[in-house]
Amino acid sequence: MPVYPKNLMRRTSALAIAALLAASPVAVFTQPALASAGPPSVADLSERLIDAVVNISTSQTVTADNEGDDDTPSQPMPKLPPGSPFEDFFNQFFNKDGKEVPPHPRKTEALGSGFVIDASGIIVTNNHVIDGADDIEVNFNDGSKLKAKLLGRDKKVDVAVLKVDPPKPLKAVKFADSDKVRVGDWAMAIGNPFGLSSTVTLGIISARNRDINSGPYDNYLQTDAAINKGNSGGPLFNMDGDVIGINTAIISPTGGSIGLGFSVPAATVQPVIDQLRQFGETRRGWLGVKIQSVTDDIAESLGMDHAQGALIAGVDGKGPAKPAGLEPGDVIVKFDGHDIKEMRDLPRIVADTPVDKTVEVVILRKGQSLTKTVTIARLDEGESTVKTSLGTPAVPEKPRTTKALGLEMSSLTKELRGKFKIGDDTKGVLITNVDDGSTADDKQVKPGDLILQVGQQPVESPADVTKRLDELKKSGTKQALLLLSNPQGELRFVALGLD
């Protein structure tokens, strides 16, 4: 290959390309019009909304970790020669008697975001922004500052409502119907990341109904609009300038935005905010059941066409579900007209249901669709989910045992109750060993668990289990649905293959 000077090579190439384009019209390509890369500008929208977004500053008094710990002995002051260069240093921490001086309480400060929803001075933010605060100050875009008082807060959806007394009406924003938000819609966040006030970022709705295991009502909007520390409590807007969510969390290995931000949808927070403004607390609906997901194998064991709904694993004896006739093993597929596609749909819908409202609940029970009527009670936020009492068994003198499905099972004896810490008022078939690598092992079945039902039939002895498994095999069932209880009385269903 000939070697050319660089300038000649560039000129020759240019001439060759020019000749090619002139001689061959088919080589001339026209660039197609590119799709819009986004809104031409959000400047007008930002200018209209930015005064409604605030910076929230909090302060909290903290004390030493060991304050009030009488068991912690005082440390004597080291003996130093007079005039020692370390004498002044140690005098900061020890008094004239040589006793340790307790550290003084100190103030810590934190920053977050919020937004005005009522011109009279109602402001919304995250609960974690103001949690534990002694003082809350709201800083506005025009530089003014106002002290705020807490009207109410809810930890489960991480929202708090504040009140300020402004000298004139404030700029306020309104909520949108977040249920109408689609994946791919543009979204704009305004907040105070790292204390940098009035910061605007733009992105899209990346996903809906995200569960990040932060609470019982997770159904976050996911966005790639940049959200960082300090954005918490700020609004996520649609392109109409209405609030579709409250920016609450990020997933990040670095602590900064990597495009995985999460906002609590407006549809979730609005009922909570209304209750906090009216009552200063939440008043959620309560059904009184413990539920779990319907997996593919559980659906197969129940004879369902596909996995759907919420499987009832336990019923609170004092809750509204009990008199309504709901039972463990029922699958709730519709509640008050709302389809329950998966387990986590139900807690959110029940919580939003007004207390004392009577609703219809559609369940699947042993292959049949039934409709039950339930009057919703009020959730006591401090109570545990389910307490179960299963009666008192007859304790045999000698344990009876069997093995099936990778499980070693035994009747209950006094010795086994003591070994596995099982109460005298509990009955069932005790699992004493689980084969390593078995399906039961993979599904976290443990020695000490009790089998209460097999194939939705109660069992009280290993013989009952064997008999029921044989019946299921003869009927052509491929999965055996077991209702298990741990020693604490927590219930769950597990499906194990019969092959």
TrEMBL record:
EC number(s) given by UniProt: 3.4.21.107
Domain of life: Bacteria
Residue stretches making up the PDZ domain: 276-367, 373-487
Extent of the signal sequence: 1-35
A Pfam short name: PDZ_2
Catalysed reactions, as listed in the record: Acts on substrates that are at least partially unfolded. The cleavage site P1 residue is normally between a pair of hydrophobic residues, such as Val-|-Val
Enzyme class: hydrolase
Compartment list: Periplasm
One of the protein's GO biological processes: proteolysis
Gene3D superfamilies, alphabetized: 2.30.42.10, 2.40.10.120
GO molecular function, one term: peptidase activity
Record keywords: Hydrolase, Periplasm, Protease, Repeat, Serine protease, Signal, Stress response
Chief place where the protein resides: periplasm
Region of interest (Disordered), ranges: 60-82
Assigned protein family: Belongs to the peptidase S1C family.
UniProt-listed NCBIfam families: degP_htrA_DO
Protein's recorded name: Probable periplasmic serine endoprotease DegP-like
Species lineage: Bacteria, Pseudomonadati, Pseudomonadota, Alphaproteobacteria, Hyphomicrobiales
